[in-house]
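Handoff note, outgoing to incoming analyst
You'll be picking up this chain. Sequence as last confirmed:
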Amino acid sequence: MNQILNKSWIQMSISGLLIAGTLFSIFIPDWEFAHKTSEFTVHIMVGLLGLGLLFLSLDQRRLLFVSFACCAALCIFLKNASNENLLLPDINLEPKISIAHFNVSNFERGFEQLDEFIETYKPDLISLQEVTPDWGMYIKQSLNEAYPHQNIQVRIDPYGMAILSKHNLVKKDTFQYNKIPNLLTELQLGNRKILVLSSYLLPPLGEKSDIRSKEHLQLISKKIKKTRKPVISLGDFNMVYWRNEIREFRKESDLFNSRRDFTPLGFRIPHDHIFYSSKLECTNFKEHRDDASNHLGIFGTYQFKSSDTQNAVNAVIGLNEDELLPQHF
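Most recent structure output, in case you need it:
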């Protein structure tokens, strides 16, 4: 093996392939194959680490350096696309909210699994997607008391969704993209208000669906940019958070990612996300899995930034109260 790897043209070829693959994973071309490959960027990063260890055992220092450098580049890329905080923010005295998001089609045991989660975590707000008439009936019969404030769209197709809240809903609204509903809900948290947008994007299955996903994200971004209220944007986006479309959406909407990292279990990559605006802080985030480690949904806790923190942020970006945009949809 070493005799082959010691040849300079072999080393140059392997190094070129590793660097090209890394650049391909970071600067994702607008090709269907590239989009499918981007799903496994974390796996590619782990593979590069494994190759580096292999080259270490073979005393191939040049290839070792290239493998580890490519692995580090993907680490930085993925970290920049996730929550960049190395430590979770300290709990303050500002209003807080815990949020759970599920696509009910993930529940093999149906209503029972959601009941178990609610009993354990008692979230303040639950977002459900693919809400069918059966689930609509379950919500009415079983969750009305615990979650009396609701914004629901029951459908027989995959586009049914619901927002269930313990807090009062100041406003309930729906906007559509190509007949796909998006729930826009305003909550009252003490003396504060917060907007929650629940969206379901079609899975990108070709060039046309990629265009539709971009247009859908642009519509959501326009809604977010019309308000200065704190915003939570969540749902099944049906793409990984390091995709160009998601990163561009977050940049345009000035949103942060709740996920701090991602540990792959097999080849099923979660496509559900919770993004939040700069007036909020994510104090906890976790994926909820069943006993077989199947992904069921996500759960996060959020708080308003303390007054001192928010004033410092405003000073950095040069805002004062007179410069804030009107608070409307």
